[in-house]
Design goal:
The radius of gyration is 20 Å and the shape is globular. By secondary structure, the chain is of the alpha/beta class. Strands 4, 5, 6, 7, 8, 9, 10, 11, 12 and 13 form a ten-stranded mixed β-sheet that branches. The longest helix is centred in the N-terminal third of the chain and has 22 residues, at 75-96. 38% of the residues lie in helices and 16% in strands. α3 (75-96) packs across α10 (263-276), α5 (123-135) packs parallel to α6 and α9 (239-247) runs parallel beside α10.
């Protein structure tokens, strides 16, 4: 079996990659560099020249070749490599007539605990959203309680606004639901420490990305002052970056994104690194059902999985990317038994949802300077 072609599809803000073989077996993958999909396509155009004619089952070999044939690194390269890797695993599963997780060592679990993302900062809507998630069977929710306009708030106001939202959510869901707080990198180290101290009474599952991920040392210094577990890593790319993060004590839970951190091949290695530090894996999962399916197989095959976040996939445009998504039932996705990833790309999606380009915008402080984001 040989690779014949690598196709790219832009849908809404997402880049899907399909690999075709001469045996009629195809695989689908996804890249998580959504602000700059054209940059990823540029990388894929270079990778295409190497991949045509290759055996699609030599997955790790192709990973190493494409990662190391130049000395350049970065998000566009890793996103392209991730999408190819996911698609190759999809092909391998179909070739061997087995779910991808069976090829990764088999299942550690039969279903994947999902964490519902409720991303609004309006308190009434936030409470309504988490209540709905719990009513649907979820035992974990994730919120971003940092209100819009945060860069212009005095410190006392900032802390009180965050606490008011987390308090309302905890009261709404009770003690039997895990609450995760996403800070989205908005705080300076001094602010993050004060906010975490104020949130300790709510017994969070974790606080995510309390500061910018620019420095492993800075993250580790902040984590050392916190009692609440910290999750981070969605903007990291390689086992080398995650090793340094874990060695420095910069997280208890790591959040690799399968569409950015090297696909299934590399994220399995990242998970093993975390296991050596007794760390858990809670992948970043924000895009389409293709990434969700890939994450489901990864999470099924590792012993140290925690939760998998997601946005509802049963409504457009996400629902149109695949012919059938993996359903969430009572807060879990059942690990599929079908060969490959268990989802198939819907070719009508690009025409239904053309590319929606990102417009550069960010939060500004009162004096006009750029705030963290």
């Amino acid at each position: 079996m040989k690779i014949e072609e690598i196709e790219t599809f832009l849908v809404h803000q997402w880049l899907l990659v399909r690999i075709q073989t001469d045996k009629g077996i195809s695989g689908i993958g996804e890249a998580t560099f959504f602000p700059h999909p054209e940059a990823v396509i540029g990388v894929l155009n270079t990778f295409r020249d190497y991949l045509r004619g290759q055996d699609p089952l030599r997955i790790d070999h192709h990973w190493q070749f494409l990662y190391r044939f130049t000395s350049f690194r970065g998000a566009a390269i890793m996103a392209a490599l991730s999408a190819i890797d996911i698609a190759l695993w999809d092909i391998a599963g179909k070739f061997y007539r087995a779910p991808v997780c069976n090829l990764l060592g088999g299942r550690c679990r039969d279903k994947i605990r999902m964490c519902a993302l409720v991303l609004t900062d309006e308190i009434d809507a936030l409470v309504a959203g988490v209540k709905q998630a719990v009513a649907e069977g979820h035992t974990a929710v994730k919120i971003d309680p940092v209100a819009r306009g945060f860069p212009r708030m005095a410190n006392d106001r900032l802390v009180k606004e965050i606490v008011s939202r987390v308090s309302a959510v905890r009261e709404a869901v009770g003690p039997d639901v895990d609450v995760c707080v996403e800070v989205h990198r908005k705080l300076a180290p001094s602010e993050a420490v004060i906010v975490e101290q104020a949130l300790r009474p709510f017994n969070l599952l974790f606080i995510e990305d309390p500061i910018q991920p620019d420095s492993v040392q800075s993250m580790a210094q902040v984590v050392s002052k916190m009692a609440t577990p910290v999750a981070t890593g969605e903007r990291l790319h390689t086992i080398y970056e995650f090793r340094e993060l874990l060695e420095a004590g910069g997280a208890q839970h790591i959040k690799p994104d399968i569409g950015l951190a090297g696909g299934i091949t590399h994220c399995k290695k990242i998970a093993a690194l975390a296991e050596a530090y007794h760390g858990s894996v809670a992948p970043h999962n924000f895009l389409t059902p293709v990434c969700t399916a890939a994450h489901v197989h990864l999470c099924a095959a590792i012993p140290n999985f925690l939760v998998l976040e997601y946005l509802p996939e049963d409504r457009p445009p996400r629902s149109d990317v695949v012919k059938r998504h993996l359903p969430v039932e009572q807060g879990y996705i059942k690990v599929p038994d079908t060969p490959g990833l268990g989802v198939e790309f819907d070719e009508s999606a690009p025409s239904k949802h053309p590319l929606k380009r990102f417009v550069p915008a960010t939060a500004l402080k009162e004096d006009g300077s750029v705030a963290y984001r």
